[in-house]
Amino acid sequence: xxxxxxxxxxxxxxxxxxxxxxxxxxxxxxxxxxxxxxxxxxxxxxxxxxxxxxxxxxxxxxxxxxxxxxxxxxxxxxxxxxxxxxxxxxxxxxxxxxxxxxxxxxxxxxxxxxxxxxxxxxxxxxxxxxxxxxxxx
Length: 137
Hints:
Blueprint: H1 3-24, E1 37-40, E2 43-46, H2 52-71, E3 79-80, E4 83-84, H3 85-118, H4 121-136
Antiparallel strand pairs: 1-2, 3-4
């Protein structure tokens, strides 16, 4: 394949990445219901700083506690570190969503950077000229 054909494919892929980035930017920010600091089994967790795998493990543990509380008909009275278990799970899910969003943003940025490196020198010059032209217009 020649440079022009590759450049066309690269520009098409770049547009797809920009479209995905635009969809991502519509996400909301993290607004927790809880204070984000909970104690489970004598261990204190701050869900603001936990990594995604740790958040998932903690959520699974809390879900098992929630299912047990439901089975025992004490869910309405079951509180962990001052908040209902459902609130903790909701906050953890929201935090995981934020982390997943950031991960996807980084992945798209990486792909976009790779595509730009693959462009021919002529196409890079053309894009720079177009950018300068649009600024001056």
